[in-house]
What does this fold into?
Amino acid sequence: MNYLRKGYGLDENGFIIRDVGAEKISPLYQECIKETVETLHVQFPNILHSIYVYGSVARGDAKIGRSDLDILAIFNRDLDSSEHLAVKKLGEALSQKYLSLVRDIGIAKTTLNYCLDPENYYEQAFLRELCVCLDGEDLCDRFGPYKLTKDIAMSFNGDIAEVSERYLQKIKGATETEFHPTIQGLARKLIRTFYSMVMARSQIWSTKLEEQAEIFLQYFPDKEEVVKTLQAWIEKAPADRTEALEFMEKESKWAVNHFMKEAKLGGIQS
It folds into this structure.
């Protein structure tokens, strides 16, 4: 991918160019999205501020039956325990209904005050650069533009220790049907984290997994076999579960141990 050079994905002033948009969302997902939005309004009629989609559906490169529908719901106040559970159950019910269309419907949630707090730089950058508003006030217009800084890199994937541990525990107890989706999830997370390590110094912006892998390998060519294995497991589950777990534990540990040091190298501060 010779086009992945410094400045790719950035405008002439070095600001990130959004690669998501309402016009990129395939009509195939409209019914599913519509029901998700409408059901959220029915269940939370007075406290819902706005709803967004992010990920592959927002980028327009989702694959039928293999991609997730990633939804972010912003509420006017904190949810209580029963409301948190209701959001979780809604995602599970819709996932089952649209199983032939999407691998999973995940509904993340946060509050308006949290998003507007100047301290929450990550949340604001995430909304601006990665989300498409489906309903309600579009907060994306309030934030940015953003340059490809060390803070952006560290904020987007600095949770690798917590996330990888959660995935590893799921892999250990996964049923046959749960095993591959869990492996896929951690493989994607590791590739995105690898990219975040070199994001700021490369000054190359991409949200596409294949491109992120290539950008990372420009700096860590010795990790090529690791990346190829992760990419292969995204497409097809590994045959040996014990070997897969050992591999994922090793590479998760490598990512955790190297992330902060590598992400701070080069680039610019916010």
